[in-house]
Amino acid sequence: MFLSSPGFLGTRADLMTDVVVVGFVAIPPLLWWSAGRARQGHHQLHRAVQSATLAVLTVLLVLFELNIRLRGESVFLSGEAEASLFLRASLYFHLFCAVATFLGWAALVAISWPRFGRALPGGFSARHRLCGRAVIAGTVLTALTGAELYAVAFVF
Question: Where are the domains of the chain?
Fold first, then answer.
């Protein structure tokens, strides 16, 4: 694919993989910062950052998945790497964290969006905060497990 050119991190990864890894490492601090803005009463900014980040992430994930499918290979589960139970388990755990976090985040945005016009904070605020913390924790796990897979597949 057009993004299969060499990456910019100086590893064996392609450009799309480097973009996704950098994006996922940047997401947890961005979400934490956004949550801080909400705590300070900047709810419009919080909403905009959360929605825009989720939208950009969705586009990146679609491009990344297309990149993998068009290349027709699984970097993580081919050759000697396929024999590694640790690598296979790491990949599946990463995918579980990533999918659960993405779905949870998308659901939180979808549920929160129509409630936004009402008084803030409102009756949904406590649950929103709890779910938001879970999403941030999920993005941290996804970033850590993704960085681990990136290092194993493209650095070492």
Answer: 15-151
